[in-house]
Fold DNA polymerase sliding clamp.
Amino acid sequence: MAASDAEDAVGDGDAATAGTETEAMDSLTVVIRAEVLQQVVDQLLTIVDEAIFRIGYDGLSVAAVDPANVGMVDVEVESGAFESVGEGMFPIGLNLQKLDDYISGSSGDDPVTLSYRPETRSIEIEHTNVEVEMSGIDPKTIRDEPDIPEIDHSVEFTVDASVLTDAVENAELVSDHVKFESMVDDEALVVRGHGDTDEIQTVLGADELPNATFDADAEGMYSLPYLVGGSTSGSKYAGILKPLNSGTELRVEFSEEMPVKIYYDFADELGHVMMMIAPRIQNR
Amino acid sequence: MAASDAEDAVGDGDAATAGTETEAMDSLTVVIRAEVLQQVVDQLLTIVDEAIFRIGYDGLSVAAVDPANVGMVDVEVESGAFESVGEGMFPIGLNLQKLDDYISGSSGDDPVTLSYRPETRSIEIEHTNVEVEMSGIDPKTIRDEPDIPEIDHSVEFTVDASVLTDAVENAELVSDHVKFESMVDDEALVVRGHGDTDEIQTVLGADELPNATFDADAEGMYSLPYLVGGSTSGSKYAGILKPLNSGTELRVEFSEEMPVKIYYDFADELGHVMMMIAPRIQNR
Amino acid sequence: MAASDAEDAVGDGDAATAGTETEAMDSLTVVIRAEVLQQVVDQLLTIVDEAIFRIGYDGLSVAAVDPANVGMVDVEVESGAFESVGEGMFPIGLNLQKLDDYISGSSGDDPVTLSYRPETRSIEIEHTNVEVEMSGIDPKTIRDEPDIPEIDHSVEFTVDASVLTDAVENAELVSDHVKFESMVDDEALVVRGHGDTDEIQTVLGADELPNATFDADAEGMYSLPYLVGGSTSGSKYAGILKPLNSGTELRVEFSEEMPVKIYYDFADELGHVMMMIAPRIQNR
């Protein structure tokens, strides 16, 4: 239905001659593969309930900071990852859990059409045989998008997502914080949990960190619920590492008592995620 | 043990010469495949806790209406679907959850023997190496079996159970009611959920409805917990569509603001189910 | 790291010349396959939270009795099942749930190194790339290990673990106790649950009991939560039969109103478990 109209409009610009009521909308319609949109939603849901999507000729851009100001997720999807983009651009605040529900009937390469309806400040979602009219949220009521600080880092490495997740979850067995310790001499990262009675450490060496640059011994301590979810804290969020599967290569940066930044790509390298967790100041 | 005696008795009537105490019972013994009985129980459990089974030479017949009088399930299994039936017929009220438990150790083609014990108003269940003595419930204390109304319908179609379930569950994302709308001109059924802020519709056309007769545009609105279970209402029942798998062809009938009836067959077309959900009168 | 040092020390005794601080410890280090240690932990966790492990040149020995004094588990692992044992022996009280967590990253043949640190009364656990420093519990604060009574039994049989578990779980459908009844004449064991209204029995005959010695008709009644877990009682323990898989051959002994003892082997017949449940005196 509207989906194919929209595609035509984007494709050849002839829609203006069609004289339908959707005409003005076509420049505010994009088509994206279901699995790409799903990854965006899954990653954002680890840290916020609502976010402002900026979608249009330039692709998609969303940045969100959690209510406690500890975690941040920034997602960019280049226009080349879209099946089709309009000539316009629209910002819309969306409830992520609802959006997750509404696209749950689509998967893989299924095209999902998103059309902005400025008069109702809503978005029309179409996929498979499903059509949804979803109300937007006034962007003014959503927490401002964060500035992403530039940080010099002394430690940088790549690691498979599941290897890092396993190491971090080990720490969760004894504590609700995890300490990353770079050991320059050993070219190893120690991921340590320090509990009241017990202590657990997982050592990631050259085998686990294929590209590592360790400029200094550095320690950073981070909240586990933000990384792997709320088993010890009651957080309703899943932890930023949770949507990631084995096979996803992460790039991780941190410095002494500074935020940790975690980067990865998806959608054939056309989607980019940057996540940041503030350090917990150590008091022992 | 008793199971094989019972089968012999049914098979050749020689049991009368055996002079055992089970002799008088043999005419009140039936043998049914586990998977057939399981389907009966699973379907009834979607709407009631207890039901009156009528079992005997004519097969099995159970009808049940839910406590709120909104949903109804009627199950018939022809005698040909039984491994063996006696010459008698017995009615017995049974707790469905317990019956489900007691047959859980049997599966597939396992024969399940049901023998009525009139003196204790109980039923003996035998399968595999398990024997159960299960108390019946006085049929007088169970809600009367419903009359099934004859209803002229203006819309009739067949649809795969999973296709209908998916469409109905989409509506559940925004509402606790679903609206079926027949569109004669498009030969399509729109399954619509109308929420406070959002609206979702799934369009089933010729591909999804292989046999459709649409005599008029009609709308019927139905309660979602009765169809797919209680995520939004706290119902303890599963929803009448829940026991059905992809591959089960449903026949659906409804008319403007009238009940919807859903039919399907099982047990090699020897088992028949009719389910009915009363409409919710629309007030918008 | 320390793991390989420890192995060397055990292997050839050269560690004394290394002059390191771990030197004195080496005789208190053992290496065991992950799956063997996991089985020990899983079986003990069915009955207690904490237990005193005795580990060393003689292998491993743990005995535990549940807080209510109804169930008992005794586990022995011969030194031959270890990859390496020291020349010393150490007793240490351990929290079983934590130990279960700490070895969860290892599996199958992964070697797990356990080193006793007498000065801190702690144990160091090493496997894969994980190192844990786990505090011990003062053995004096842990319930005394039970004496295992010698009992003459009149019934003895072998049975596959899943066959016995299924029979016992059937009884759980109607009661929170199960009765074992040996029938000498039939060479069968009846596993019976007797509920308020319903009764269920599972008959295990020669097919299910390959080696059976029935010296007398005997009945023993046992608490179901201790056997298969707490669905009817709120017990936090899993039931002693729960960690056992199909294919594990159990040897079972009981007598009229006496405890039931259940034995099985694991770790290529080098691990031995004896479990005992006290009888419930029948009062009907």
